[in-house]
Amino acid sequence: MFILSKTFNSVLLVGEGNFSFSFALLKQNVCLHPKNFYATCYESLQQCIVKYGETETSKNIQFIQDMGATVLDCIDATKLADLGLRKFELIIFQFPHTGRKASIKNNRDLLRNFFISAQSLLNGTNGFVVVTLCAGQGGTPADSVKREYCNTWKIVEMAAYANLILTKVQPFGSDAFSGYLPTGKRNAGNEFHTARAMSHVFRFAEDPPTLSPGWISISNGDSNVDLSSNLKARLVIMDRIPDTIPPYQFAMQIVQNLQQKQNISEIVLPGSDHKELCVSLQNAKSNVIGLQLPSLLKEITQDSFASAVCHALSFPLMKMSDIDSISSIQYDMLVATNNCDELLANFQAIFESYSNYQIELNIKPSAIPFKCLSDTSSLEILEQNSLCVNISSGKQAIIGQHCLLKLDHCNRNSTCLSIILLEIDKVMLSLNPSISSNAMWSLDEKTRKLLWHAFSQRDVYVPQSLFPPKYVHDISFWVRSGGKDHPKHPLTMDRLKSIIVQTADQSLSSVELLDEYNDGNCSSMCIRVTYQSCDFCLSRQNCSKLNDIVRKNISQVFNVILR
After folding, report:
1. Which letter, b or e, does each residue of 268-307 get, where b requires 16 or more Cβ atoms within 10 Å of its Cβ?
2. Using CA atoms, how far apart are residues 530 and 383, in angstroms rounded to an integer?
């Protein structure tokens, strides 16, 4: 149990009945300083004694006071800010309930208002709020008793109103608290059903960093429309802190391992100014070319690859990925060699050091053009393949591309060169399926550290925020026909997705087409946009504001009339 796993400097309990839980916690020294332990109830003490049993309640109150702790009555858990109390490391609400035959909505309101109230007394990011609910009430996947989500108290969603995220959820074992006798919503003889009850542990979410507005310019007929882009703003920050980004860290580990395995004494990498760079190094063992931009492949000469095994490593390039890709940002890495088998064997050994399974790499013919060679007409492309990984767990994935080309297509004896493009994000996801592509690029530093630790230690990644709420918004609109009066972008699903990704960024979970209508004279579309933030709190009202911005950007770019 989380409550018993550590000692807290200050503890506040709200909604006590017979005070038996406060009694149990003090008996087990949960609070380091009993003078900082506060036990409160909603009714007056006299009402509690009458309602929940005179003998048991009076005994517990006396014990709490004898320990030097404080007992307060007539305390409304939804108005804690009015009390003027100190800050607490732990705030507990056991089996909250509004009383009588209350509706689900009333109990959701109780939770929401309690979380907002408790926020004012929580000791920053070092504080925790613990709420225990009966089986099925919370509405999380951890509940052993499943209800329709609409029939639950939606505890995670209610906590989001107070910028609190769920960090743990575990079965509540009442047997672990000696002397605890839960009392029901009416009297001592009507206990809460504690069997399969769940304790939910919340903490403050880190505030997302302040983003300077990122602007993208969208062509709109004869003019441009400037849209605020959260994605571009995040790219600016990511570009400043590459060494804290897990895909970059993994790419650098690959470089270091290849240096050791291929006896390459130095790898030339470009600086942060993103200028084109192509440098040849001569040494006794190999020649190395450092590449930043794929267009520089045409600068490779046959003499550069005269030795037995040579590599050209590009600096991993952070870029926008395709709309249907795994993430809105990805890292690519280019490696060139005239001994592909040896390079693949080295990749395989490196990858296995980051996986709990055996790895097999192979190349398979592909009709997809090698995307980095569009401007290399001077090179003869002999083969284009997909780079695939087979894992002993049964998972298969495409993690990049391979092509075989001649450096000089006019020379029959020209050296053949293999170019491998590694999509670093996909490699990491295939090696450790527990990690998240969004978390790789999170603006939250702690999230990135947790993910990299899990990946590098071959461990299971556990996100900071468990079961973050999803909010679904349907957007429907009439589509105008084009013409001189409406010279905006023609609407396609890919373009529509692109605008939504640019706007919502990491708060976007999915976009799907629900309905499309066209009778020849007019047409309409309805799309479903699902929002979810895995790092920062996204409350329902903040999500509504974000959806309004998405709607506004759609109407600015496309010839549509929003419904």
Report:
1. bbbeeeeeebbeeeeeeebbbbbbbbbebbeebeeebbee
2. 41
The pTM of the whole model exceeds 0.90: no
Question: Does residue 523 come out as left (phi exceeding 0), alpha (psi in the -120 to 50 range) or beta?
Answer: beta
Q: Residue type at 360?
A: E
82 or 63: whose pLDDT is higher?
A: 63
Listed in order, the ranges of the chain carrying CATH 3.30.930 are 241-431
- CATH fold group of domain 241-431: BirA Bifunctional Protein; domain 2 (3.30.930)
- Give the Cα separation of 119 and 117 in Å (integer): 5
Of 467, 437, 471, whose CA–CA distance to 550 is shortest?
A: 471
Strand pairing category for 198-204 and 508-518: unpaired
Residue 453 and residue 439: Cα distance in Å, rounded? 12
- What contacts 252, CB < 8 A, 6 or more positions away? 243
Q: Which residue has the higher pLDDT, 127 or 274?
A: 127
Report the SS3 class of residue 203: strand
Its CATH class, for the domain covering 11-204, is: alpha beta
Does residue 138 carry a pLDDT above 90? yes
Which of 238 and 310 is assigned the larger pLDDT? 238
Dihedral sign for Cα 504, 508, 514, 516, please: positive
> Are 3 and 24 within 8 A, CB to CB?
no
Q: Is residue 289 over pLDDT 50? A: no
Q: For 128, what's the count of Cα atoms within 13 Å in the CB-facing half-sphere?
A: 19
Our CA dihedral for 259, 260, 264, 265, rounded to 10 degrees, sits at 100
Dihedral pair phi/psi, residue 305, rounded to 5°: -120, 45
Measured distance CA(428)–CA(245) in Å, rounded:
12
CATH of segment(s) 468-562: 3.30.70.380
Beta strands in 233-376 (DSSP E): 278-282, 287-291, 311-314, 317-320, 329-337, 359-365
- Grouping H, G, I as helix, E, B as strand and the rest as coil, residue 157 is helix
Cα–Cα dist 378/130, whole Å: 66
Q: How far apart are CA 550 and CA 529, in angstroms?
A: 10
